[in-house]
């Protein structure tokens, strides 16, 4: 097949949807002709917005069997009506709009583009069943493909420490604002908190580093889950973090905020949910070992190829 993939960032070293998207393209390129056009290659800007659109419109004259868009770029599917178009939805809109004034302003620009993508694309791929339920009325031709986990063991295993708590995600107020408030109320107690992620908000990072038991570990391609007994999230808005699946597969106790986007059957038996940060101390102190069985995690895919096969079956492509 000839495939065109349109995305914002083409990179295998970043996180979240960007990383997942790269793995899909890498797998598809094995047996297909794939062209990826992106505004950024890693962190290097390749095109201005106008030049990027010009390149895309030039590609409309070529023959493609599939045209795939990441997130809000699917608004361009309107101009690819004669093609079989797919939108991957990694976002968390409109919920994210109510996280801060900045996100609200950003969402006023981005969210309508997502909505038009839902309407114009031939098929929508959601990574979370919650969002499929939420948006499927706009396009009933959709399916859920959980983000696959590719295990990487390129780190030193020092042994699981139940007093070391793992936090994953770039350091900004959305992901760690509640962590700051938690520390101000409860301190660190008997636990040491290791934060893996690029520092986005330097001011917040300095406030977290005031606590001796908070260690900012920076960005790393391989997170050493096997060295930790507990993984916790303080994020106020997410879709479905890849780090949650990665931690579960490495048998970590996972502690997450109770939220609609985590409210589906597969997670009910394997995640410890809290309604307020005041409950976290009790959960941490009572967490000795995971209570789920291996077959409780069978819903987490470990192969991009199997997800691609499901997608092709949905599209009736042999």
Textual characterization of the structure:
It is a single chain. The chain has 318 residues and is of the alpha/beta class. Helix content is 32%, strand content 21%. The strands form two sheets. A seven-stranded mixed sheet has the order 3-2-1-4-5-6-7, sandwiched between helices. A six-stranded parallel sheet has the order 10-9-8-11-12-13, with helices on both faces. Helix 1 (16-28) links the parallel strand 1 (2-10) and strand 2 (33-41). It is globular, with a radius of gyration of 20 Å.
How do you describe this structure in short?
The chain has helices at 16-28, 49-59, 101-120, 129-135, 173-186, 202-208, 242-249, 265-268, 280-286, 304-314, and strands at residues 2-10, 33-41, 44-45, 66-70, 85-89, 123-126, 142-144, 161-168, 192-196, 214-218, 228-232, 253-257, 272-274.
């Amino acid at each position: 097949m000839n495939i065109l993939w349109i995305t914002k960032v083409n990179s295998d070293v970043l996180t979240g949807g960007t990383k997942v998207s790269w793995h899909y393209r890498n797998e598809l390129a094995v047996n297909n002709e794939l062209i990826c056009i992106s505004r950024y290659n890693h962190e290097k800007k390749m095109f201005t917005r106008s030049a990027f659109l010009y390149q895309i419109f030039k590609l409309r004259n070529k023959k493609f069997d599939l045209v795939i868009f990441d997130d809000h770029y699917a608004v361009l599917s309107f101009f690819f009506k004669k093609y079989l178009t797919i939108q991957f939805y990694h976002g968390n809109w409109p919920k994210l709009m109510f996280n801060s004034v900045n996100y609200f302003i950003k969402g006023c620009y981005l969210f309508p583009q997502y909505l038009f993508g839902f309407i114009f694309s031939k098929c929508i791929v959601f990574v979370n069943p919650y969002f499929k339920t939420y948006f499927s009325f706009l396009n009933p031709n959709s399916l859920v493909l959980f983000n696959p986990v590719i295990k990487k063991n390129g780190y030193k295993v020092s042994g699981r420490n139940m007093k070391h708590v793992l936090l994953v995600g770039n350091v900004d107020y959305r992901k760690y604002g509640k962590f700051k408030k938690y520390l101000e109320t409860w301190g660190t107690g008997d636990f040491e908190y290791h934060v893996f992620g690029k520092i986005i908000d330097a001011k917040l990072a300095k406030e977290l580093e005031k606590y001796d038991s908070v260690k900012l570990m920076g960005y790393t391609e391989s997170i050493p889950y096997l060295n930790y007994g507990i993984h916790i999230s303080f994020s106020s808005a997410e879709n479905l973090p890849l780090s949650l699946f990665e931690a579960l597969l490495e048998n970590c106790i996972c502690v997450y905020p109770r939220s609609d986007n985590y409210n589906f059957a597969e997670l009910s038996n394997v995640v410890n949910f809290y309604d307020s940060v005041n409950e976290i101390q009790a959960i941490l102190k009572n967490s000795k070992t995971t209570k789920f069985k291996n077959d409780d995690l069978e819903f987490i895919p470990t192969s991009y190829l199997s997800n691609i096969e499901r997608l092709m079956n949905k599209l009736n492509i042999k």
